[in-house]
Write a structure and sequence with these properties.
Blueprint: E1 3-8, H1 16-28, E2 33-36, H2 53-64, E3 67-73, H3 81-90, E4 103-109, H4 117-129, E5 133-134, E6 140-142, E7 149-150, E8 153-154, H5 157-174
Parallel strand pairs: 1-2, 1-3, 3-4, 4-5, 4-6
Antiparallel strand pairs: 7-8
Helix pairs in contact: 1-5
The structure holds flavin mononucleotide.
Flavin mononucleotide binds next to helix 1.
Length: about 180
C-alpha cells in the first residue's frame, strides 16, 4: 500500500486546508497509508541548528513516503512562510535531499475565488529546484474554502470527486 505524507500549509486549528487534508485522507480510506507532518514544531531555518528532532522527523517522514501531498493556502500570491520553512529544512543537502525525485501532489486552498492558483505554480517551481516530481495532472484548486467547512468538516462533493480522481491517478502512478 502506498505511503503518503501530507504537508499542510496552515497551522491554525480552524484551517480550511487542514479540513481539506482530513477529507482527502478519509476519502482515501484503506487505499493508502496516510500520515500528516507536524511543521509547527520546526524552528525557523538556520543552518547553525544541527540535530533538531523536528527537522529529523520531517526528513525521515518525507524520505519514507512514496508520495508527498501538499495541501496549502495561498499567502500573498505564494506559499505560506511556514510551509516554505518546512520545505527549506527538508531541501538540504542541496540537490540530494529527501525531496530528490520525490513524487508530489498539490492541492491549493483559498478563502477567495482563485483557489490558490498562484501558490500552486510557485510550489511547482520550488519543487523543481529540489528535483522533486510534482504530479503532472490537472490542478486541484479549492476556492471559497472557508464557506465549505462546518464543524471542522470540509464539504464540496464536486471538488472531492475531482480531487479523488486525480489522487487515484497519483496513487496508480506510484506503482
Ligand atoms: C497572510 C495572508 C495572506 C493571504 N493571501 C492570500 C492570497 O494571496 N490569495 C488568496 O486567495 N487568499 C489569501 N489569503 C486568504 C486565505 O486564502 C484564507 O485566509 C484561507 O482560509 C487560509 O487558509 P486556511 O483556512 O487553511 O488557514 C491570505 C491570508 C493570509 C492570512
Amino acid at each position: 500500500m502506498p505511503k503518503l505524507l501530507f504537508l499542510t500549509g496552515s497551522l491554525r486549528a480552524e484551517s480550511s486546508s487542514r479540513a481539506v487534508t482530513r477529507a482527502l485522507i478519509e476519502a482515501l480510506g484503506d487505499r493508502a497509508t496516510c500520515e500528516t507532518a507536524d511543521i509547527a514544531a520546526l524552528p525557523h531555518y538556520n543552518d547553525d541548528i544541527k540535530n533538531d528532532a523536528a527537522v529529523a522527523a520531517l526528513r525521515d517522514a518525507i524520505g519514507a513516503a512514496d508520495g508527498v501531498v501538499f495541501v496549502t493556502p495561498e499567502y500573498n500570491y505564494s506559499v505560506p512562510g511556514v510551509l516554505k520553512n518546512a520545505i527549506d529544512w527538508a531541501s538540504r543537502p542541496a540537490f540530494d535531499s529527501v525531496f530528490k525525485y520525490k513524487r508530489c501532489f498539490i492541492v491549493t486552498v483559498s478563502g477567495g475565488a482563485t483557489g490558490g492558483v498562484r501558490a500552486q505554480s510557485h510550489l511547482k517551481y520550488v519543487l523543481a529546484g529540489m528535483m522533486a516530481l510534482p504530479h503532472p495532472g490537472k490542478e486541484i484548486l479549492v476556492p471559497f474554502a472557508g464557506k465549505k467547512v462546518e464543524n471542522g468538516v470540509f464539504r464540496d462533493d464536486d471538488i472531492m470527486a475531482f480531487a479523488g480522481a486525480q489522487m487515484d491517478e497519483f496513487l496508480a502512478s506510484l506503482g
